[in-house]
Every structure is written in structure tokens, then in C-alpha cells.
Amino acid sequence: MTSEELQAARDSTVPDVVAGGLRVLFCGINPSLMTGATGHHFAHPGNRFWPVLHRSGFTPRQLKPAEQAELLRNGLGITNVVARATARADELSAEEFREGGQILAAKVEELRPQWLAVVGVTAYRTAFGKRTARIGPQSHTIGGAHVWVLPNPSGLNAHWTIQTMAEEYGRLLTRVDHNTAVPATPPMYLDVP
């Protein structure tokens, strides 16, 4: 992909991969330029979301970004706190995060996932005014969903390795599998590219 193609994706949006009653709705910070250009979530080659999702046990094999719709078969989905694509998350304002948090809360209330997993503690803190939040389960719900904050899988997040992230994602999976069941009803809503 050329630099011009990536820059043309700036401020674009990418459709969510969602359905009603998901086990877990993963929520990224915002789309990268690569995601904006391809229409596939977590598409940047340095992003570790897809390997971590597999190593933690959420998917039976490592999916490629272009296979994102396969998540729905596992009761999983993807959205973002802020919808517009940027080269870096630090291009977003605190106001965009707060507005995105309100939109996300309404989306979660409509879709009714059992868990909302926000991948990025700083984004979560800003979007929901939880300045002392840490990685792990949170003590409140959003839109009726339990909340878990996960490490950001971006390659820029050097504090976490694929293995340590997979362990944290696995902690969420253990809670999901023990405390909630996959709904027997088919998805009510689908927004897949």
C-alpha cells in the first residue's frame, strides 16, 4: 500500500463487526490508516490483536484481518471508541474520546453484549472519566455489559508482549466462559463490511 493510499484513508470510518447478544464486543481505540484503507479492523501488520486473540483461546485459529466476519461465529465483535482513522491515537482529542464513550455506551445498550472489552486503558480512562482504571475487570457496567480493560495490542505498546497480552485476554475468556453462556438466539443486527 502506498503512502498516498494510506493518507487518503485519514478520517475515514470502518463498519463495526457486530451482532446482538455477543459474548464479547472488543473495542479498539480508533482505526489506523491501514484499517481505514483496507476496511479491516486491526489491519496494521504490527498490530498484535489477531495473534493475541488466537493465543488466548478466543479463536480456534489465527484469523487474518480480512476474515474479521468470522468473529461473529465465535460470539465476538469489534468496534472502536472513536470512529475516524488516524495515523496515531494521540491525534485524537479528549473531547473525541468522551463523545466516543457516549456513542459506545449507546451502542452497547442496543447490542447487549455480555462483555465490553476495551483494548487500551488510556482511551478507556479518557472516554469514561475513570482516571484510576487499570487493566482487568472493572467494577461497573456500561450499557448493561460487564467491562474488562485489556492492553492495547498496537506494536507501539512495548510494555506488553504477545504472550503477556494473551494471558490477560485469556483471563477475560475464563470469566466469559464461566459466567456467561453464548445466547441461543441468532444475531439481531449485523454491520459487516
Number of helices: 6
Gyration radius (Cα, Å) is 15 Å
Provide the succession of SSEs.
HEHHEHEHEEH
Helix content: 25-40%
Shape: globular
Tell me the fraction of residues in β-strands, as a range.
Answer: 5-15%
User: What kind of sheet is the major sheet?
Assistant: 5 strands, mixed
Q: State the secondary-structure class.
A: alpha/beta
- Strand arrangement within the widest β-sheet reads 2-1-3-5-4
> Kindly state the mean pLDDT as a whole number?
91
Number of strands: 5
Distance between the termini: 20 Å
Spans where pLDDT lies below 50 across 5 or more residues: 180-193
Question: What are the defining features of this structure?
Answer:
193 residues; alpha/beta; five-stranded mixed beta sheet; 6 helices; 5 strands; 33% helix; globular
Plain-language structure description:
The chain is an alpha/beta fold and 193 residues long. The chain contains six helices and five strands, in the order αβααβαβαββα. The protein has a five-stranded mixed beta sheet. β4 and β5 form a beta hairpin. α3 packs across α6 and α4 crosses α5. The longest helix is centred in the middle third of the chain and has 18 residues. The two termini are 20 Å apart.
